[in-house]
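quick one before i forget lol
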Amino acid sequence: MVKQSASILNYEIGKKEEKNWLITETTFLPEYLGKTEAIFTLGNGYMGQRAASEEKYPNEKRGLFVSGTFNKFPGDQEVSELPNAADMLEVDIFLNGKRFQLTDGKILSYEKTLHLKNAELIRLVEWESPDGNRYQLEFRRFVSLANKHLLAQRITITPLTNSAVINIRSGINGQVTNSGTQHFKEGEKRLYHQHTLKMEQETTTSHIEFVHYCRHQFLQHNEVIQPENIIFMERRRIFMEYKHIEVLKNESITLEKISGVYTSRDIENGEAWKEETLEAFEQAGDYQTLFTEHKNAWEVEVWEKFPIVIEGNDFHQLAIRFAIYHLIGMTPAHDNRMSIGAKGLSGEGYKGHAFWDNEIFIVPFFILSQPEVARKLLEYRWLTLDGAIKKAKENNYDGAMFPWESAWLDEGEVTPVYGAADIVTGESTIIWSGFIEQHISADIAYATWQYYQYTGDDDFMNRYGYELIFSTAIFWQSRLEWNEQKQRYEINDVVGPDEYKEHVNNNAFTNHMANWNIQKAIEYYDRLVKNNPAVLQPLEEKWNLAHYRKLWEEKSAKLYLPQPNEQGIIPQDDTYLQKEIIDLTEYKNAEEVGTLFLKYNLEQVNDMQITKQADVLILLYLLEDLYSNDIKRANWDYYEPKTLHDSSLSRSTHCILAADLGEKEIAYQMFEEAIRIDLGPALKSSDAGIHAASLGGIWQSIVFGFGGVRMVDGSLRIRPNIPESWEKLSFKIFWKGSELSIVATQKDVKIRNESNKAVSLFVTENEVVIEPKLETTFSLV
């Protein structure tokens, strides 16, 4: 178990209807601001607002990120990244001449709470200023799910010891950077109608125009007041200063700040878009009106659609709501030109790039819960085909070689070349993933197939899916290398899912997934020849598929696929089983990941039997029907002790496999560790942003692992195996257009078919048919 720090989070403040919906930071620690800045991020898929405070602090990391707005700073070692847009949150408050700052004076009480159900962030502070005056301050904010462009704040200030004269500065601050890199050119700033501030900016190389608006309204005694004010403009900054607001003891003043963000990526109407956005922004309502619309959107569009109920463990119930909250908030469901970054929209980590994380860990949530969004995420990959073709050509391969990190549709590879320091040499280490971690092409094909199996969406396959599978299979056949001595094809010099093993030959996951990809291409090609030649014809003309159909069969027949040895162990690669074995106890118990590299460099770790994350084991999970339980157990017993779980992706896979093997206690432990990656007490774990794919893995652990939902050989199978501490698990899934409600206990599982057509599936090992609008109960004992 990972050692944890003392927690500053309370998960039990919510009572009655708010039970298991609230996460509260109970202590303000200025040296650890990143924890709740990340996990309390507010988002709607269009933008994500990191949860920095209104007032500024030295250790903070402020961030507002808009999906799909990548920019590249000039320089050989620079890559495209999601730029940190102008800060809309900043509000400077002066109380009787003293700046409100929690690092000054005394904090008498403090709570910062994320309400998951209505996606509102509330901060309650009682503060004593250096001059001895006490104040109560309430800060509220949300990023609207009902209107993707709007961010709203509400600040209420109450003097408690004496009356107060309050001054406030607030506006739009474009003086932000991505860790020092400024991605925006200066643009127009102005004030409209004496109340709406506007600032325009444009990204330096991608030339995306941003327009930011904000307006302020003050309320006292439930009436709007007009404080004395003056406008200021500075470089990349526009703000209002409101002066001499007098507030009596135990009375309050409220500031409502409504902000809007629009970009030229949104436009449909040419040059008129700026005028239209101004009009739309000025017509937006006040805080309460906008909040009511926002709250209703979360209720109807999220919590009614994705209800997962865990009875018997309050923290687990909270954890899955936290996961779903972020999965919705970070996913650009509105636009297939965009995808999900490895940190969602919660921080600068991984520069907003999309990885295999999406297809293997996040897309399944949407396939089973909101298939139309899963389709858009896969359409994004199809739209990036030109970039994948470009990368293949640059590496002298055919077909589509998808980039390890992806940003713009046609850009190709955007993985940085250099990373952290080498503890031995003192040099920057090369990030080889962008060069040789190539399994992502098969992962995208797998997700495409998985989506089709669950949805039966022929339109998607005809337009996008078949081409994704064919083009990646073309890449793989060109990637195979002939070994004359052994008379077989191999895949050499790669990085598999275990990124602690670089430049290995015949990584089992890569070889098997490449072969799977090729076999699916053969299957679908032959099916289209027979049943739908009209769909095949344009693909045939573009890709010369008949030529590759022969090569797929000839080469895959001779492709080396690592098989279990006498002990049942599948070698992770050609040399893994011969490497040195060391005691990993110290590193498994470390509070932070990566402590291994305080002693060894990656070259040394490359020569040891140390695995970063599930590698062979994720192969056994994704291609589960190819392996017996005996093989799965033998590989679990061998590889899990050698796995440090230094990737947030690892524990969910181990949880699901343990559940499949009937190892309830181990599955439960892995699940506990997975949900604490972001929610746990480790205070530095989330500084760069939330672990987006881990949240998808949490959902998979519950639905695929404990819920036992799986698609095997084209059929749906449900075999629940819930933890002993859970009394009941309830959730919904979609299967080929039908909605199924599932309620599992230790003894039985109830399945209700909410659709108008009968559904055939397997419960445990028995095939059953559930009639429309009926619920059927099946015994599990």
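fyi Residues 9-291 form a domain with the Beta-galactosidase; Chain A, domain 5 fold (CATH 2.70.98.40).
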